[in-house]
Write a structure and sequence with these properties.
Elements lengths: L2 H26 L13 E6 L6 E2 L5 E13 L9 H8 L3 H14 L5 E7 L1 H8 L8 E10 L6 H4 L2 E3 L2 H6 L8 E3 L2 H5 L1 H5 L3 E7 L5 E4 L15 E3 L3 H10 L5 E7 L4 E8 L12 H10 L9 H4 L9 H10 L9 E2 L3 E3 L7 E3 L8 E2 L1 H6 L3 H13 L4 H13 L22 H7 L24 H12 L3 E2 L5 E4 L2 E2 L3 H4 L2 E2 L7 H13 L16 E7 L7 E8 L6 E7 L9 H14 L5 H9 L3 H17 L1
Parallel strand pairs: 2-10
Antiparallel strand pairs: 1-8, 2-3, 3-4, 3-5, 6-7, 8-9, 10-18, 11-12, 11-23, 13-16, 14-15, 17-20, 18-19, 21-22, 22-23
Helix pairs in contact: 9-20, 12-14, 15-16
Length: about 625
């Protein structure tokens, strides 16, 4: 190609690129288009849609809406007014008035923002006739949440005003608007909120509204929020909350075949209606400052407890997988397990099989500490070094979803702790540690910490013979079933399915065998597989734990119950779990005395003792 042709071609190419760029900027890209928001003669009004309703798995309405009204302000339009009269109408002080006015002016002198949020119907009716006197102020209709069943506050979450951090990141929201703060309201905010409509109103030189700007070409209609169906069974949820009255702890129930969460209880709880309306801020402060009960703290997802004896199930499965025991391997129990020369190096056992051989089935239903201490020791000592043995053991445990987030769709959670070889190498840098050093792991004590949802998932895994579906709360959006890969794809543990049946049989005998630790929680007509637990508590009375699933074949529900300071597993956690199972599977219960004991039973004295002990320990330090 000659040089002159190359020059012509270059000029044509540059020209073509410039034309394409100008076409993109002027026709396609809206970034540089004049916006009505930048026109001082334009008033902007938003039309807020109704937020989507929330239903439980059976179609029961659990979150609805109620009308509310906001006093809006456009600071530059505000004319001199009788401030005292206006404050009296709004039931605020002059100091509050000035503070709110300053805040709105800093936000924007010409864009409407919320001056006073969430007026009631009565306040609106009274103010509507008088607002003409106060230029720059107008009333805008909104909707607030309403909770007809007053249940599942920790699951549903609440809505509140957007904060400055979110305003700087998300241009959709304006100051004073509402957003899901926690729970389902937060996780599914985009579906629930809908899309607000916008109207641009033209003003003349006297600042009087004269009609839609450019015939309403920029206006948009509001889109109502989508209804959401969650996996919760609200009747079971409410029943569990009633059983946990005057107790502290967490309950999680899961459908093993899907991972759908049937119940997610944190106790003490609160009426979700408290965090609605103009009293929301005051009520939130009161709940937040209640450090004795901590009702805003979700114990089902955040509280970390030693798993206690239910963890023996995992140790038994690991030992079978590693082939260090069989179902017939016997260990003798002499009232405990001695793991060192010191008299203190003795793990007590209360299984009542002194001097008798204990095999796997009996070890589970009698919850024999000696059996599982020997089992754990064999796992660790199978390998040349303790570090190698610990790594294998820890990897098996983590495959059950312990020691990590479950990657669910809940708005909060913690990992828990599963110790590994790195942890103990840091703990004992100059000491040759081994199975005896870490023997508390054998019975779910020591460094292991789990949350109720993790133990419920572990129980679902046993029910499914080695696989699980990620626990989740969403079921439908806009009445369309949700199919998310991470919720519908099964995950497998490192334990072969053939090792689960003897464990399930042992859990069945926990309740059905006359010597089982939960014999008194037996339910006629339902084959329940369970495991009691008692988690040591250095600050007070031990915690009561129970995990279970039912029916034994084709399980429909897996559950974990933690009752803080509840003594042993069969005293509080066991009856609560089996009553819930009976209620869910049969629709009713036939154990009125046990039900009454749970309803009326209180552990407040134990909590008071614990608080006093902690306070004294702090003073001593």
């Amino acid at each position: 190609m000659e040089k002159k042709h190359l020059a012509y071609f270059s000029i044509l190419l540059v020209g073509l690129l410039l034309i394409i760029r100008l076409f993109y900027i002027q026709i396609i890209d809206t970034k540089y288009k004049p916006s009505p928001l930048n026109n001082s003669a334009i008033a902007v009004k938003y039309d807020y849609p109704e937020r989507g309703f929330i239903y439980d798995r059976n179609g029961v309405l659990i979150v609805a809406n109620q009308p509310s009204y906001d006093i809006m302000i456009v600071p530059r339009d505000v004319k001199p007014l009788d401030t005292l009269e206006f404050c009296r109408l709004l039931k605020i002080s002059k100091k509050d008035f000035l503070k709110k006015y300053k805040k709105s002016r800093i936000y924007s002198p010409r864009i409407p923002s919320v001056f006073l949020a969430q007026l009631s119907k009565n306040d609106y009716a009274y103010l509507q006739e008088k607002m003409y006197k106060y230029k720059g102020f107008f009333i805008q209709k909104r909707t607030l949440r309403q909770y007809p069943l007053k249940s599942a506050a920790n699951v549903l979450g609440y809505i509140g005003e957007v904060n400055n951090a979110l305003l700087s990141k998300n241009s959709y929201y304006q100051q004073g608007e509402l957003i899901g703060i926690n729970g389902v309201e937060k996780q599914y905010e985009e579906a629930l909120r809908g899309v607000k409509g916008v109207k641009f109103i033209q003003r003349n030189r006297f600042n009087k509204e004269i009609g839609p700007y450019k015939g309403g070409v920029y206006d948009t209609l509001a889109t109502v929020g989508k209804d959401v169906t969650i996996t919760l069974d609200i009747k079971l949820q409410k029943y569990a909350e009633d059983l946990m009255a005057n107790k502290r702890g967490g309950i999680v129930a899961i459908e093993p075949s899907t991972g759908e969460i049937l119940s997610l209880v944190s106790s003490p709880t609160y009426d979700p209606n408290l965090l609605v309306g103009r009293e929301r801020s005051k009520n939130y402060t009161r709940l937040f400052l209640d450090k004795d009960n901590n009702p805003l703290y979700d114990r089902s997802l955040l509280a970390q407890y030693p798993p206690g004896s239910p963890f023996k199930i995992i140790n038994a499965l690991i030992a079978l997988q590693e082939q260090v025991i069989t179902t017939e391997t016997p260990f003798y129990c002499h009232g405990g397990f001695r793991y060192g020369r010191s008299s203190k190096a003795f793990m007590k056992c209360h299984c009542g099989t002194h001097g008798a051989p204990v095999k796997l089935d009996k070890g589970i239903y009698k919850s024999c500490n000696s059996y599982f201490a020997n089992t754990y020791k064999k796992i660790i000592e199978k390998y040349p070094t303790s570090s190698e043995g610990m790594k294998v053991w820890s990897d098996h445990v983590k495959s059950f979803g312990l020691g990590n987030f479950l990657n669910n769709d809940l708005s909060t959670g913690v990992k828990g702790i599963v110790p590994d070889e790195n942890l103990y190498n840091r703990f004992y840098p100059n000491f040759k540690w081994g199975a005896s050093t870490t023997i508390s792991n054998a019975i779910g004590q020591g460094e292991i910490l789990t949350t109720p949802i993790q133990l419920a998932n572990m129980t679902a895994i046993v029910a499914n013979k080695g696989l699980y579906y990620t626990p989740h709360i969403i079921k439908k959006i806009d009445n369309k079933p949700i199919k998310i890969d991470k919720f519908t794809t099964p995950k497998r543990t490192t334990i072969d399915s053939k090792y689960f049946p003897p464990i399930i049989e042992g859990m069945f005998h926990v309740i059905e065998n006359p010597g089982g630790t939960a014999r008194w929680s037996r339910v006629e007509g339902i084959e329940i597989c369970g495991k009691t637990g008692t988690a040591e508590n250095s600050h007070g009375q031990d915690h009561s734990i129970f995990v279970a699933f039912a029916p034994k074949d084709n399980p429909k529900i897996a559950i974990a119950v933690f009752v803080e300071n509840g003594y042993w597993g069969s005293r509080w956690a066991g009856p609560i779990a089996t009553l819930m199972i009976e209620k869910y599977l049969n629709g009713q219960t036939n154990r009125p005395r046990e039900e009454k004991r749970m309803y009326e039973g209180s552990l407040q004295d134990e909590y008071d003792k614990q608080l006093l002990k902690i306070a004294l320990e702090k003073e001593t330090k």
